[in-house]
From TrEMBL:
<dbReference type="InterPro" id="IPR011330">
    <property type="entry name" value="Glyco_hydro/deAcase_b/a-brl"/>
</dbReference>
<protein>
    <submittedName>
        <fullName>NodB homology domain-containing protein</fullName>
    </submittedName>
</protein>
<dbReference type="Pfam" id="PF01522">
    <property type="entry name" value="Polysacc_deac_1"/>
</dbReference>
<feature type="domain" description="NodB homology">
    <location>
        <begin position="23"/>
        <end position="293"/>
    </location>
</feature>
<dbReference type="InterPro" id="IPR002509">
    <property type="entry name" value="NODB_dom"/>
</dbReference>
C-alpha cells in the first residue's frame, strides 16, 4: 500500500551571494556567477531524482537578471517560475515606500526581460516584510504583483489552501505564510531553509515540517544557491581591506556560519522530498484567473 506524501513547496531564493554580501558590507560589489550556477544545478539535480514536480519558483533579484540573463532565461525555458526577490537584495525595512516601489519596478522589468514571462510573485530578502513594513503590501499590488511569500508567523491556520487572501483597497493580494516555530521571546525557526536547513539535523527538520503541516501550513522549503554550493567562495579578507579590522573579523566569522553545512544540503533535500511532495511553482496554487495578470 502506497503512503501519500504530505505536500510542500520548494523554492530557490536566487541572489548572487558575493554581490549581496559585499553590498551589505558597504563595499563595491563583485559578482560570482559560477557559484550561482553550481548551487542551482545541485538543487535541481536532486529534484530530478525524486517523484516531485520538476519545476520550482525562483525568487530572483533584478541584479541576477541583469548580470546573468542567461541563467534566468534557461530556468524559464525549463518551465520554472521566475518571481522577484527585490532588486539588489535590499531589506524592505531599509527602504521607504517610494524607494521600494522603484526597486520593485526595476527588478520586475529586468526579470521579465530576461525570463520572457510575467513576474507575479515576490519574496522579501530575509523575510523583511513584517510589522514594521505592512505598508509594503499595497505597494506590491501597485507594482503588479499577485502574491507574496514573505510573511513568517506562528498563528495556526484553518484554510485548505496554501495561501491567505489579503483584501486591499482595489484588489486582492495572495499571501503564502511560512511557519515560524517559536523558541523564546521573538526568536524562532522559519520552517524551513537557509541556515536552519543547513545546520539542523534531518530528523528535527522533518519534525518541524510535520508540525507546520499540522498547524495548517503547506511547508515552504527555501534554499539559496550558496546553501547548496559545496565549493564555498566567501568574500575574502583582502576583498574587505577597506573595512576596519574589527569589521573584517566579524564578517569573516559571520560568513563561516553561513557556509557551514552546505555539504549536507543535497542529502537532506533528497530525504525530505521522499516524505513531502513538492507541488510545483507557487503560482500554480492560485485560482486560475489570478495566476497571470
Amino acid at each position: 500500500m502506497t503512503t501519500l506524501r504530505q505536500a510542500c513547496y520548494l523554492s530557490i531564493d536566487l541572489e548572487d551571494y558575493k554581490h549581496a554580501t559585499m553590498l551589505d558590507m558597504g563595499l563595491e560589489p563583485r559578482t560570482n556567477p559560477e557559484q550561482t550556477w553550481r548551487g542551482v544545478t545541485r538543487i535541481l539535480s536532486v529534484l530530478r531524482e525524486t517523484k516531485s514536480h520538476p519545476a520550482v519558483t525562483f525568487f530572483t533579484t533584478g541584479q541576477v537578471a541583469r548580470d546573468q540573463p542567461d541563467l534566468v532565461r534557461e530556468m524559464a525555458a525549463q518551465g520554472h517560475e521566475i518571481a522577484c526577490h527585490s532588486d539588489q537584495h535590499e531589506n524592505v525595512y531599509s527602504l521607504n515606500r517610494d524607494k521600494f516601489l522603484h526597486n520593485l519596478r526595476r527588478a520586475k522589468d529586468a526579470l521579465e526581460a530576461a525570463g520572457g514571462q510575467p513576474v507575479i510573485g515576490f519574496r522579501a530578502p530575509n523575510f523583511s516584510i513584517d510589522e514594521r513594513t505592512t505598508w509594503a503590501y499595497p505597494v506590491l499590488a501597485e507594482a503588479g504583483f499577485t502574491y507574496d511569500s514573505s510573511l513568517a508567523t506562528n498563528h495556526p491556520r484553518t484554510k485548505a489552501e496554501a495561501y491567505d487572501v489579503m483584501t486591499l483597497s482595489d484588489r486582492e493580494l495572495f499571501v503564502f505564510p511560512i511557519y515560524r516555530h517559536m523558541l523564546t521571546g521573538t526568536h524562532g525557526i522559519r520552517v524551513i531553509g537557509g541556515t536552519f536547513f543547513r545546520l539542523l539535523p534531518l530528523s528535527l527538520i522533518v519534525t518541524l515540517m510535520k508540525k507546520s503541516a499540522a498547524l495548517g501550513y503547506v511547508p515552504l522549503i527555501y534554499l539559496h544557491a550558496a546553501d547548496a554550493d559545496d565549493q564555498p567562495n566567501p568574500v575574502r579578507w583582502n576583498e574587505m581591506r577597506r573595512l576596519p579590522y574589527a569589521s573584517r573579523c566579524a564578517w569573516s566569522l559571520r560568513q563561516q556560519q553561513w557556509l557551514l553545512g552546505a555539504h549536507s544540503v543535497a542529502d537532506k533535500l533528497r530525504s525530505i522530498l521522499t516524505l513531502f511532495a513538492h507541488q510545483g511553482p507557487m503560482q500554480t496554487a492560485l485560482p486560475v484567473h489570478t495566476a497571470v495578470r
